[in-house]
Amino acid sequence: MKIHEYQAKELFANYGIPVDQSVLCRSVDDAVKAYSQLDSQRVIVKAQVYSGGRGKAGGVKLAIDEIELRKHASNILGMNIKGYIVDRILIGQAVNISKEYYASYIIDRNSKSTILMLSKEGGMEIEEVARISPEKIHKFVIDPSIGVPDYLAREAAFKLFDDVNLVRQAASIFQKLYKLFIDTDASLAEINPLVLTQEGSIMAIDAKMTFDDNALYRHPKIASLNEPTEEEKKEQNAKSKGFSYVHLGGEIGCMVNGAGLAMATMDMIKLYGGNPANFLDIGGSSNPTKVIEAMKLLLSDKNVQVVLINIFGGITRCDDVAHGLLEAFKQIKTDIPIVIRLTGTNEKEGRALLEGSHFHVAETMGDATKKAVELTYNYQD
Amino acid sequence: MSILIDKNTRLIVQGITGRDGGFHASKMKTYGTNVIGGTSPGKAGEFVEDIPVFNSVKEAVKETGANSSIIFVPAPFAKDAMMEAADADIQLIICITEGIPTLDVVQAYHFIKNKGANLIGPNCPGLISPEKSLVGIMPTMIFKQGSTGVISRSGTLTYEVVYNLTENGMGQSTAIGVGGDPVVGLYYQELLEMFENDPETDSIVLIGEIGGDAEERAAEYIKKHVTKPVVAFIAGQQAPPGKQMGHAGAIISSGSGTAAEKIAAFEAVGVPVANEPSQIPSLLKVLI
Q1: A143-168: per-residue pLDDT in tens?
Q2: Buried/exposed B89-106: b ≥16 CB within 10 Å, e otherwise
């Protein structure tokens, strides 16, 4: 789960990480009021959206007087940045930047640890730095049983600074950021840029945090900041019913048990010349209620012309699955052709049950996919 | 032989009094696995089928000599269960539970490693050495004893692949689901090494998916250290970036972790990548 910059800065401030003074505004009038409160002639106006690349999209501007502030605020509010409409802006004091750095904590799959990543190349996207000059990124693997002790924080800070006073400031920020990362079950805590001001202090002038969805149950305050898009709402609704759904935009809706098999099914549809409408994993069991819910979700996508159901009966036997499907489709009225592929435990019994129904029954994934693609073409003719 | 589990596996089930724990304990026992006990705090003295229940893993180990444990406890308690097993000197810990916070897994993983034990999972179907031992939730009837080793990040996709192998007369030495989370225990590299050293394994199928760069690393490792034939399959070519595809670990982030990169990495080291699961047996037969 993502949060906005202003929300992340609030968390930073709570943990004693220095941030620039800023005020969140929802209108131009708010912005003007904020401007008069801030102890700075020059201010930065920043769009608050989840998407990266705000600067490039024109969502970050410097204003040196009230006229400019009004102009930028009214331009940025309502702006569309990669599909997100800006409804909030952050007005912050413009900091006298001497140099920009990068600092973040992420969970690294390979070391199976939290790592601290640092670079002197602040202000640009870290993926870009990693691609062009990976030697400029410093990584520190954190032992979860000891966290970030003073010596490690100093060692890290010396990668960015020579002056011991600056090292102490930075080291303290790294320790506080780690505590925040762990306390909130974050999956990313990023400061880009971390700046050294001309006055000699180090502060975060941007803040980015994402959180582990699996841990939100123990962080209700953070969970309450969630602002899902329409598409994400659909995905979250699916999740609450025990399955995973991702919209893709094609015309063959698919319903599969298991995430890996569901991905492989999408790939097969493409391989055989069709386009998957979605990813949908209905999980281990295929009880009728779940199938009904999943079908409703699939059919709410008006692009869907054919539905492909791919079930590998493992612990759940195929004859049970077939009963479930027959039961479910008594309650779902649709003219859309449905292809069912059923394999695994008791597959013959399962397929026999479906014989004579209006389903197209297939034995292999290949046959089922071919059939589904064929039916899409018929539909288009 | 086989890897990790065989007739010498002495297994306890943590969370045996729960619905899934009880169901699968009985399935595993029926298959022939030595399920010698289970744990559930406060339920010592009870039996699930005829399997004795203990209050703690330490107690279960002391009474039964267990060397492996499979965990079915709910996500909020899974970290504790993993650590409890390691602290009781269990050597192989298999965690089936899905949805565990990643930082919990990080903590448990390091604890287990420091104790010198191995973790498989979490969010995995477990493993099976056909006709010897099942420590997991896999549908046993699709497996057949043989000499192909299977390593996978997924559940039902593994069954699909194994089904195709078995139908084509290719049995399995051991099949392992490593788990679909971003952080899991034993992974491709360790398991490739075990299969390479296992005299009963003559070929390996590796089933990967989008997210992370474990497949790329596996390809590098195969090039340097694996002499047995390997065939790969990668799921998620159609996955859009930035979206979690069911598994917490299956996500393309900042343009990396794509299926195309992984397929290219395998092809670059001469590992054939199947277009669809049913192609795997024929690709493998050419190499053996």
Answers
A1: 999 999 999 999 999 999 999 999 99
A2: ebbbbbbbbbbbbbbbbb
Q: What is the pLDDT of residue A92?
A: 95
Q: What is the pTM assigned to this prediction?
A: 0.93
**Which chain B residues contact residue A51 at CB under 8 A?**
none
How many angstroms separate the CA atoms of A140 and A137, rounded?
A: 10
To the query of whether residue A190 is one of the catalytic residues in this protein, the response is yes
Cα A362 to Cα A341: distance, rounded to the nearest angstrom = 5
> How is residue A2 annotated by DSSP?
B
Contact present, A366 and A355 (Cβ < 8 Å): no
The answer to whether the CB atoms of B155 and A258 lie below 8 A apart is yes
Q: Residue A379's pLDDT is what?
A: 59
Neighbours of A47 (CB within 10 A): 27
Say whether B246 and A262 touch across the interface (CB within 8 A): yes
Question: What distance in Å separates the CA atoms of residue B272 and residue A60, rounded to the nearest whole number?
Answer: 48
- The rounded radius of gyration (Å) of the Cα atoms in chain A is 26
* Closest of B249, B196, B258, B186 to residue B221, by C-alpha: B196
Beta carbons of B153 and A260 less than 8 Å apart: yes
Distance CA B182, CA B86 (A): 21
Both tokens of residue B73?
A: 């406890």
Rounded-to-integer distance, Cα B103 and Cα B122, Å: 12
β-strand partners of A63: A43
Q: What is the ipTM of this complex?
A: 0.93
Q: B residues 37-66 near A, CB within 8 Å?
A: none
Q: Give phi and psi for B263, each to the nearest 5.
A: -60, -45
* Tokens standing for residue B25: 């304990």
**Joined tokens for residue A47:** 């769009």
Cα three-residue angle B108-B125-A108, rounded to 5 degrees: 40
Distance of CA A41 to the CA centre of its chain: 36
CA angle A84/A90/A92 to nearest 5° reads 150
